[in-house]
Amino acid sequence: MIRFKESNKRLISGVIALVMMVNLAFMSIVSIAAQGSDQEVKVQPAWFDADKYDGWWATDQADSTGTSWRYTVAKGTDSWKYTMHSDAYDAGFANANKYGLDVDTAVTPYLNYKVKASKDTELYMDVYAKTTVGEINWDLGKKTIKIADISAGQIVEGQATLADIEGMSEILADNNTVFHMAGPYFKTTNFDANDTFEFYDYYMTNQEVVKEVKVQPAWFDADKYGVWWATDQADSTGTSWRYTVAKGTDSWKYTMHSDLYDAGFAEANSETTRVDIDTTVTPYLNYKVKASKATELYMVVYAKTAEGEINWDLGKKTIKIADIPAGQFVEGQITLADIAGMGEILADNTVFTMYGPHFKTTNFDAEDTFEFYDYYMTNAETTSSGSEEDTVVEPDWLSEAAANKWYNWDWQYGSNEDNRFSLAFSDAGSMTITPNFDWVTNMTHTGTSYTLDLSKTPYLYYD
Questions:
Q1: CA distance 130 to 45
Q2: pLDDT, tens digit, 9 for 90 and up, residues 352-363
Q3: 78, 204, 216, 298: least buried by Cβ within 10 Å?
């Protein structure tokens, strides 16, 4: 394998973590993590600490060693696990009934949970209301509030806004923000011996989890050959003497078979797969592509009027997204509203119509390719993880498709049966050259050439 690689080490801001013990009577932990301008307040009670077995009840109280003929609770590396050993006289639930704490929903309005159960069950929390003077409302008593249904065998992860959970309006009626959480609670009515319930996460926080919205149109579906145009429309089987399009495991690939009368581009242009994009909901376009020749990536769009209709008077616009160098994986995220030319498209409406991707084939010859690995709209901004990011230029010299570009002086590989050398290709991506005569000592590949910017790809990797 030959490739040229960029290593850009990014400097990321340090994370300052301050962990302090508060409310010692209840052994709860509050952590405040400062990271840039964001600050998380995280309330993680002691219910799942390794030495807090006695805080759990499941028909009997767990003993100090965490063992019982009815059940055991165990703190592992990643989770806390309840295991039922007998369902004899089981009360139908397990809950934490010690080490409760007060939760101020004005400070930590969200409950984050991540759990797994071997049988279908339900997750709850035991809570008490607080009076206007801050005392527990014993008259109203304990309430068991449902959080989520837990399907068997699945890791169920979620975030609930505490004030919005059904039943919490009564709990917060007198003291608008503060209540007492006695602990988590889950049903065991459906459990038999050796059934389990695991907590991976269960804590209160001030940070809202923003769910990713991802708009992935059908342009690359295996049965959508007909939405693509490249001088001719793709036929229903995805075959054409001009080109083929094929859906693989990781990518969608266009392959040119003839450049005769080629229009110089390929694009998705069908009304059946066009999609309206609201830039206030999904402001970013993510793409990951690769081309065998240097080319350009575009998108075909129409503006919308203030009334939400396609602006046919303005007409179709082909908006450039990025230059695509030959042989490179090019991956990026771009803010749709910031792309040159989109100001006109979004002048009357934040919503526009995207007919599909478009890429140039002006520079293509027979058997040149363009591949899409990703192309979708999202609300999730890509951020640096602080790890190395690589720009990889991986030439096609070692590919079987480019085998006929190998020469020994004046002899081209595959040009006749008198092979001066043999080539063998493995599924792992390696190529073996075997000279068939002692005097064959010089083999050269005359295929695609690559222009390298040594400030970006200073390293040559070979294996």
A1: 19
A2: 999 999 999 999
A3: 78
pLDDT digits (tens, 9 = 90+) for 114-123: 999 999 999 9
Do 360 and 412 sit in the same domain of this protein?
no
CA 14/CA 34 separation, integer angstroms: 9
Residue range 394-418: average pLDDT? Answer: 79
DSSP structural state of residue 169: H
115 residue type, one letter: V
Give the number of domains in the chain. 3
DSSP character at residue 430: -
Helix (H) or strand (E) holding 344: helix 342-345
Specify if 348 maps to a domain.
Answer: yes
Q: What CATH number is given to the structural domain containing 333?
A: 2.60.120
Same domain, 343 and 427: no
Alpha-carbon separation of residue 84 from 50, 69, 80, 81, 419 (angstroms): 18, 9, 14, 10, 71
8 A C-beta contact, residue 165 and residue 145: yes
In this prediction, residue 333 carries a pLDDT of 96
Contact 197, 121 (CB under 8 A): yes
Q: Are residues 304 and 163 in the same domain?
A: no
Tens of pLDDT along 18-42? 333 333 333 444 554 444 446 889 9
pLDDT band at 447 (very low <50, low <70, confident <90, very high): confident
Among 400, 401, 375, 398, residue whose Cα is nearest residue 445? 398
Together in a domain, 195 and 219: no
Q: Quick check: is 153 in a domain?
A: yes
10 three-state secondary structure: coil
Reported pTM: 0.54
Residue pLDDT, tens place only, 268-283: 999 999 999 999 999 9
Contacts of 53 (CB under 8 A, 6+ apart): 62, 63, 64, 65, 66, 73
Could you tell me the residue range of the domain that residue 434 belongs to?
400-447
Q: What's residue 437's pLDDT?
A: 87
